[in-house]
Amino acid sequence: MSKVIISTENAPAAIGPYSQAVKVGTTVYLSGQIPLVPGTMEFISDNFRDQAVQVFKNLKAVCEAAGGELQDMIKLQIYLTDLGQFAVVNEVMAEFFREPYPARAAIEVKGLPKGAQIEIDGVMELPSTD
Predict the structure, then answer these.
(1) CATH class for the region spanning 3-125
(2) Cβ(118)–Cβ(53) below 8 Å
């Protein structure tokens, strides 16, 4: 199978040598999103909740560019600089997803690109066209 590179102006441009997402068959591998606003490439704010919401909006835009929707994500990896914000992540995630929820991991890290407080990457499985 060949790789299809996914790119959209509705999510922040890659800030390094990587693609926003790569599709192989019906599986889409989404690169990590941080809380950058696509038009300005600046953080939405310093507020953690605002940052989490922006990250999910960015993921949603990449999912849609790949031909799916956020609900099609099957696995999320959530990186936080403060695991104490875990409850806020749950609240925000519940605003963007409905059951069945994707599998996920939440990991505290020492630092994230550009000083972000949250980054999320994941895997999406597109609905079958059978």
Answers:
(1) alpha beta
(2) no
